[in-house]
Amino acid sequence: MRDVYQDIDHILIDEQKLQSRIQELADAITSTANDHEDLLLICVLKGGFMFLADLSRALKRPHELDFMGISSYGSGVKSSGAVQIIMDLKQPIVDRHVLIVEDIIDSGRTLQYMRRNLLARNPASLHICTLLNKPSRREVDVPVDYIGFDIPDKFVVGYGLDFDEIYRNLPFIAVLKPEVFAHLNL
Ligand code: IMP
Ligand code: MG
């Protein structure tokens, strides 16, 4: 039987480090509560689902949740550059205090697109929280309010992040063995 754990080269961020950093992020978000009376967390699917689940549980202040499906990658490891909304929010966000919850910022194009799209709906405020950030890969400038971890320019999987839609279930952030990518012409 195929076992996803056999494809892992090494773990970059283990469960304990993830969870303690997420609690710190939640505390930082809670401490700015005055500015965010009616906080609405918007999870960017699919990659943000596990981070949202843990961040939401770690948040003490009241908040609502909504989901947005965004597609910015093909099945490979390089961005196509094209961003598409494949599932929109269930509700208007006018006058709401919105926090975008994203798995990773790479080129910045996905978040730049989302930010512009959501700002056009006139929220009271719009902030961004990302679990992972690859600063060396940035192509467009996006203001990010909360960052879990800066990571090197490596393709990572786990904790919501996929390669070819697999590995999202891993409870940590990991780097895959080179042979997993062997069939791709990178
Ligand atoms: P950006 O638009 O280039 O910033 O890419 C952001 C999106 O690309 C993320 O929401 C992820 O879905 C995907 N992505 C970027 N880097 C990685 C990675 O290392 N592993 C898995 N997905 C990634
Ligand atoms: Mg992806």
Overview of this protein structure:
- α1 packs across α2 (49-58).
- The chain has 186 residues and is of the alpha/beta class.
- The protein has a single domain (16-154), classed as Rossmann fold (3-Layer(aba) Sandwich), CATH 3.40.50.
- The longest helix has 17 residues, at 15-31.
- The two termini are 28 Å apart.
- The chain is built from 3 helices and 9 strands.
- Magnesium ion binds next to loops.
CATH class: Alpha Beta
Q: Can you list the ligands bound to this structure? A: inosinic acid, magnesium ion
Helix content: 10-25%
Structural class: alpha/beta
Count of distinct strands: 9
Tell me what portion of residues adopts beta-strand conformation: 25-35%
What overall geometry do the principal axes of the alpha carbons give?
A: globular
In CATH terms, what is the fold-level topology? Rossmann fold
Structural domains: how many: 1
CATH architecture: 3-Layer(aba) Sandwich
Largest sheet: 6 strands, mixed
Cα-atom radius of gyration:
16 Å
Read across the widest sheet, the strand sequence of neighbours is 4-3-2-5-6-7
The unreliable regions are: none
* H-E order: EHEHEEEHEEEE
Distance between the termini: 28 Å
Q: What is the arithmetic mean of pLDDT? A: 92
Determine the number of helices (DSSP H or I, runs of at least 4 residues): 3
